[in-house]
Amino acid sequence: MCQPQTVTALYDDLAAQWWRPRGAFAMLHWLAEARARLIPVARRPGAVLVDLGCGGGLLAPHVSGKGYLHVGVDLSREGPRVAAEHGVKAVRGDVLNVPLRPGCADVVVAGEILEHVPDLPRAVAQACGLLRPGGLLVLDTLADTALSRFITVTLADRLPGVPHGVHDRDRLVDRAALVDACARHGVRLRLRGIRPSALDLVAWALGGRGGVRMLRVPTTAVLFQGSGTKEA
Ligand SMILES: C[S@@+](CC[C@H](N)C(=O)[O-])C[C@H]1O[C@@H](n2cnc3c(N)ncnc32)[C@H](O)[C@@H]1O
Questions:
Q1: Which of 63, 76, 136, 231 has its CA 20 to 30 A from that of 85?
Q2: Can you tell me which atom of ligand 1 is nearest the CA of 111?
């Protein structure tokens, strides 16, 4: 099992990879683009988007024209530094104890972070607590199913070119527990499954595409997005 400091140490070791579109974090680039499509243009001047587990700030180019102050929180040493180089107001901090004022955010984003935390209810409470009434929660993560465990842990740890040991099968996310936890904090979360386009993936692997589109799929059993608005 990966302890939090072990996970973040892994990300620190790989920090040079954050912005390499063909590097170890290539898929995070594709996911950031798909995630940003769920984020509308800011509805008021001074709107704040809090990016939990922001890593190297890969979301930044996809939201930069939308009118938010992009604030990032990441527990690794290197993530906030790299994110800051890309325009994110990034701080080092734990998503289980976020060093920001409750109710400060118009949008809270949790991209590929919930599958790393040892306490899902607490992470959800923190995320929802940051939202203003009417604010939007956007997330993507990995489901706790046998198929997901096989793909994201067993298989991924044997594939070349992707980071090994980053996913702990005990931390994959129980979808019902996630939806329940959000509801307890006033956010009705809707889930949708996604996967990379197989055609794009082949073209990308052959060097013919710069990125890979994420497509909707009818199942949330592996990789899924969630979004929901906090009750006013
Ligand atoms: C898979 S990366 C996702 C990064 C970014 N959200 C993206 O999609 O490009 C997970 C990130 O979560 C961070 N992380 C892991 N546990 C954390 C915690 N408890 N608090 C804050 N950040 C954490 C890691 O340092 C890493 O940068």
A1: 136
A2: 6
Q: What is the pLDDT of residues 104-121, one digit of tens each?
A: 999 999 999 999 999 999
**Cα–Cα distance list, 132 to 40, 47, 70, 123, 136 (Å):** 16, 10, 15, 17, 8
Q: Is the CB of 142 under 6 A from ligand 1?
A: no
Does the beta carbon of 79 lie inside 6 Å of ligand 1? Answer: yes
Q: Name the more confident of 160 and 32.
A: 32
C-alpha distances out from residue 22 to 19, 29, 165, 201, 205, Å: 9, 9, 19, 12, 9
Contact 72, 88 (CB under 8 A): yes
pLDDT in tens, 207-225: 998 999 999 999 999 999 9
pLDDT band at 1 (very low <50, low <70, confident <90, very high): very low
Q: Which atom of ligand 1 is nearest to 12's Cα? A: 25
